[in-house]
Amino acid sequence: MDEIARHDPTLPTRPLGEAARKYAKGSKAESTLKGYRTDWQHFLTWCAAQGHLALPADPTTVADYVATLAEQGECKVSTLEHRLASISQAHQLAGYDSPCKTHLVHVVMKGIRRDLGVAQTKKAPATIEVLRLMLEGLGTNLVGQRDRALLLVGFAGAFRRSELVGLDVADVAFMPQGMVITLRKSKTDQEGQGQKKAIPYGARPETCPVRALKAWLKAAGIGEGPLLRGVDRWGNVQARRLSDKAVALVVKRCAE
């Protein structure tokens, strides 16, 4: 997995001469190459969480990947298509057939387009621009670090308030690519089978959910038990977890 994680989807796996490497890098805009790398990193993290091989990936893995993101409401159709292009690029440059061009993935994406075409015209609950404004007023004390982690992790994972406050330290697995959060039970998982959400490192440190959560846990000295907790007026971290009403108040305060 480490070898796969180091693979740059913008370049072939076999060594190239200096001139060929330069032209290969120059074939696409730097912003496009950066997008490929970010998408590939997200796919790697998700595959690691699910125990799937990322390179070469089976078509069923790719189909499950885009379907999961669509179900979680994390991506627009255009974003899913861009991620498929990145996965395809990585496979082709590594000498593999693209799993994204199979009939299975095509059919799944067709269904996603039909389902999300109307649903995504609804107003989103928040945008990254709004989130950045909400973060600006947060301090560097324990409350500020907790609220930063709460907002960023909640936004990145599209968690409900009840899901967010129900998380324990044991539900978070930090990895080189980011972190994987396990929901033991949620509103959409009434049988309690559990659901894993992969969250990669953010491009900007100030809005990175992984860094924010690590900073909160370290500052609060939390090694087990509830992930998000109250902090009293003297700066003492409480043992009990936050309530979903407390999360609503945090969001309201930061939005004002």
Short description:
The protein is mostly helical and 256 residues long. 53% of the residues lie in helices and 9% in strands. The strands form 2 sheets. The chain has a 3-stranded antiparallel sheet with strand order 1-2-3.
Name the helix and strand elements from N-terminus to C-terminus, one letter apiece: HHHHHHHHHEEEHEEH
Low-pLDDT runs: 1-6, 118-124
Q: What's the CATH class of the largest domain, please?
A: Mainly Alpha
Main beta-sheet annotation = 3 strands, antiparallel
Percent strand equals 5-15%
- Proportion of residues in helical segments: 40-55%
State the distance separating the first and last CA atoms.
44 Å
Count of spatially separate domains = 2
| Named CATH architecture of the largest domain | Orthogonal Bundle
- The strand count comes to 5
The chain-level mean pLDDT equals: 81
**Rg, Å, rounded:** 20 Å
Query: Which fold does the CATH topology of the largest domain refer to?
Result: hpI Integrase, Chain A
Structural class of the helix and strand makeup?
A: mainly alpha
Shape: elongated
Mind telling me the CATH superfamily name of the largest domain? Intergrase catalytic core
Count of alpha and pi helical runs: 11
**What's the arrangement of strands in the largest beta sheet?**
1-2-3
